[in-house]
């Protein structure tokens, strides 16, 4: 299909919650194919629709030895164990900071035909499910960081070669992050 440019930090689409998918049609098929082509091209673990400018509640993943997509995803933790490892984002290039996530999750949603899908995930796939679902809710991983790590990430972002262009084109203030509202 098509490889799309990944929207960068500062683009308002990344901070806007998506609408649930209600039409399981050719448009959705194309969106999922484009997302998968783009995440493979970028060598990422996952990619959510807003990252290519689409307000669709869908993401793709290619990590942990698995590839797929989830439409209208939800997740819940399996147990209380959490991990605190470096996490990055294709929309925030070159930035990686320790981020707390649940170690295991149960993901559910639909496939491109509207059929129910569910699976248990751990490791990087569990992290990708949580990270990409955050994107669909307009939440960036920066909002999950400790204050010290957030300050460090913001300093790196401000000094990055891409930040000025993304900041100017989006026309928004980038260092005023809002705390996420709870966990799914």
From TrEMBL:
<dbReference type="Pfam" id="PF01327">
    <property type="entry name" value="Pep_deformylase"/>
</dbReference>
<feature type="active site">
    <location>
        <position position="132"/>
    </location>
</feature>
<dbReference type="InterPro" id="IPR023635">
    <property type="entry name" value="Peptide_deformylase"/>
</dbReference>
<comment type="similarity">
    <text>Belongs to the polypeptide deformylase family.</text>
</comment>
<feature type="binding site">
    <location>
        <position position="131"/>
    </location>
    <ligand>
        <name>Fe cation</name>
    </ligand>
</feature>
<keyword id="KW-0378">Hydrolase</keyword>
<feature type="binding site">
    <location>
        <position position="89"/>
    </location>
    <ligand>
        <name>Fe cation</name>
    </ligand>
</feature>
<keyword id="KW-0479">Metal-binding</keyword>
<dbReference type="GO" id="GO:0042586">
    <property type="term" value="F:peptide deformylase activity"/>
</dbReference>
<feature type="binding site">
    <location>
        <position position="135"/>
    </location>
    <ligand>
        <name>Fe cation</name>
    </ligand>
</feature>
<keyword id="KW-0408">Iron</keyword>
<comment type="function">
    <text>Removes the formyl group from the N-terminal Met of newly synthesized proteins. Requires at least a dipeptide for an efficient rate of reaction. N-terminal L-methionine is a prerequisite for activity but the enzyme has broad specificity at other positions.</text>
</comment>
<dbReference type="InterPro" id="IPR036821">
    <property type="entry name" value="Peptide_deformylase_sf"/>
</dbReference>
<keyword id="KW-0648">Protein biosynthesis</keyword>
<protein>
    <recommendedName>
        <fullName>Peptide deformylase</fullName>
        <ecNumber>3.5.1.88</ecNumber>
    </recommendedName>
</protein>
């Amino acid at each position: 299909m098509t490889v799309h440019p990944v929207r960068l930090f500062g683009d308002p689409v990344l901070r806007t919650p998506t609408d649930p998918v209600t039409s399981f049609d050719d448009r959705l098929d194309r969106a999922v194919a484009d997302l998968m082509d783009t995440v493979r091209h970028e060598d990422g673990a996952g990619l959510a629709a807003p990252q290519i400018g689409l307000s669709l509640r869908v993401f793709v993943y290619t990590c942990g030895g698995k590839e797929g997509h989830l439409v209208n995803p939800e997740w819940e933790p399996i147990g209380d164990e959490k991990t605190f490892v470096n996490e990055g984002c294709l929309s925030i290039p070159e930035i990686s900071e320790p981020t707390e996530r649940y170690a295991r999750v149960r993901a559910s949603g639909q496939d491109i035909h509207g059929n129910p899908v569910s699976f248990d995930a751990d490791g990087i796939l569990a992290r990708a499910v949580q990270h990409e679902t955050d994107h669909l809710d307009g939440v960036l991983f920066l909002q999950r960081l400790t204050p010290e790590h957030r300050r460090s990430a913001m300093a790196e972002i401000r000094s990055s070669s891409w930040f000025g262009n993304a900041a100017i084109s989006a026309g928004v203030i980038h260092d005023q992050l809002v705390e996420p509202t709870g966990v799914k």
